[in-house]
Amino acid sequence: MEHLPSSEATGRRSLKYTPFFLYLISMLTFLMAYGFPLTDTNFSVIGSRGGRRLLFLLWGALTGNYFYLYTEMLMTQTDCEDRLVRSLLLGALLLFVTAVGIPYLPELLPELARLHVEISFFSPIFLGLSQVRFLHLLEKKAGNMFSVQRTFLGVLLIGSAILFLSIGIVTSLLEIFLIVGICFYLRGLHRKIGSIRL
Questions:
Q1: What ranges do the domains of the chain cover?
Q2: How many Cα atoms are found within 13 Å in the side-chain-facing hemisphere of 188?
Q3: What predicted TM-score, i.e. pTM, was given to this entire model?
Q4: Spatial distance between the Cα atoms of 165 and 160, rounded to a whole number of angstroms
Q5: Which tens digits make up the pLDDT trace of 47-60?
Q6: How far from 152 is each of 57, 125, 147, 191, CA to CA, in Å?
C-alpha cells in the first residue's frame, strides 16, 4: 500500500483560504433562494426572471471555479489524477459556467431554455463522476482509508435522487442540498488527505 505525499506546506497554505470560500458560496447559495419557495422553483428561474441575474452570475462563477480549482489542487497535492478525472472535472466546469451564462426564458427563447436545461442536467453528473473517479484513485494509492468520504458521496447521490424523484423537478432545495453538500465534502476530503503521512 502506498502512502499519499503529505505536501504539508502547500496544504496548509491552501487550507487557510478554503473556509472563507466554503462559507461564502454557502451564503450565496442560501441568498439565491431567499424569499422564493424551495420546492416550487429553482436557481435557473430565479436567476433569469427573479431579479437576481447579477447574483446568479456571481454565484455561478464562484461555485464552478471553486469546485474545479479545489479539486485540482487536491489532485496536484496527492499526485492522484489521470486523463479521465481531469476530463470529467473540466467538463463539469465548462457545462456549469455555460449553463449559468445561458438565460432560462422558455417563453422568449425556447431553444436556449432547452439547451440550458440539458447542460444544467449534465453538469452535476460530470462533477459527481469526477469526484468518484478521484476518490477511486486515492484509494488505489492509499488503501481503504476514505470510507467516510465514500459514504458522504453516497448520501449526496441518494439524497439528490430522493429530492428529485419525490418532487419531480430540479428545485432550489435540491440545489442547496447538492451545492452545500459538495462544499463540505471537499473540505472533509482535504482534511482527510492532510491527516495522511508518509
A1: 8-195
A2: 17
A3: 0.86
A4: 9
A5: 887 678 899 999 99
A6: 28, 16, 9, 14
